[in-house]
Amino acid sequence: MTWLRWLLVALPVSWFLAATGRPPLAVFVVTGLAVIPLAAAMGGATEVLAQRAGPAVGGLLNATFGNAAELILALAALRAGLLDLVKASITGSILGNLLLILGLSLFAGGIRRPTLTFDRTAAGMGGAMLLLAVVGLTVPALFAATHPAATTAVTVHLSEGVAAVLGLTYVASLVFSLVTHRGAFGHADHRGVQAEALGRAGGKAVATLAVATVLIAVQSEILVHATEGLVVRFGLSEMFLGLIVIPLIGNAAENASAVVVARKGQTDLALSITLGSSTQVALFVAPVLVLAGVVLGQPMHLVFTPFEVVAVGLTALIVTVIALDGESHWFEGVQLLAVYAIMAIAAWFV
Questions:
Q1: Can you tell me the distance from the alpha carbon of 122 to that of 185, in angstroms, rounded to the nearest whole number?
Q2: What is the pLDDT of residues 278-332, one digit of tens each?
Q3: Residues 6 or more apart from 38 whose CB is under 8 A from it?
Q4: Distance between CA atoms of 11 and 4, rounded to whole angstroms?
């Protein structure tokens, strides 16, 4: 995608704006734009390495680095103590993938075909994993609501236990999809454009992955600093930034690829990208952030706000209902987009 290369111009511009103390909004926007091509480069390099390593190891690489850019952003925010922003980015990623991106994918594919069909078995397994992940993310909030006298230390320890279970479930899901039942899952290339742009050389892919990781880490620090300025100057809530803005920045390249493949008629692949990415956020990214909080001295619990709990629960239910019949059309995409718009408007006023 040529437009991704042009966005690299934003990289030095963001450094200049940050170094000269320009307004936080300008720094935030330009820095966020610079993250998008870096995330695409990281995804493309991972795909090249996955192709060279074989199906099993390749699937593990894709699963592990699928949300790497977003994880780096969240770690930077966690180190800065922006815990509300970090937690909101977890739920925001799930909502964005399942409502915005899947909605756009179904709409893009449906305007060319009256009916979209996909594998009910794979969709059912993805939906079941998603609901399990949602249970893990909502139980700490239910505990906090029913035990208001519980101390922060108790909720943190509870979250650590839940994170451990989610992490083990993630490992089991990799064994299931890559070893025992790999035939039921397609590990097709949904980053083919980026992979082709990076070439087939493994050494070049490793170098690209390393450089992109370092640059995303640098941009994350700038972005987090600008976020603090936005919160103070404009009164924007960390929840809105985490629910709506940060997930779009971290997942923009992968999200664009889901819409592109759906427009080409590969509905199964688009559904796999959105469901898989959302499940990975809950089963891998969230546990890693909880563990990182312990290491960084920023203990983070998984007690989300009632708004986030209800939003994620309803979203998982809606998507599961849509996926189970194995068919869809463009209007279901519009419905998902409408739900996302409603939640975004509500998040603005939180």
A1: 7
A2: 888 888 899 999 999 999 989 999 999 999 999 998 998 888 888 777 788 889 9
A3: 11, 69, 212, 215, 216, 219
A4: 12
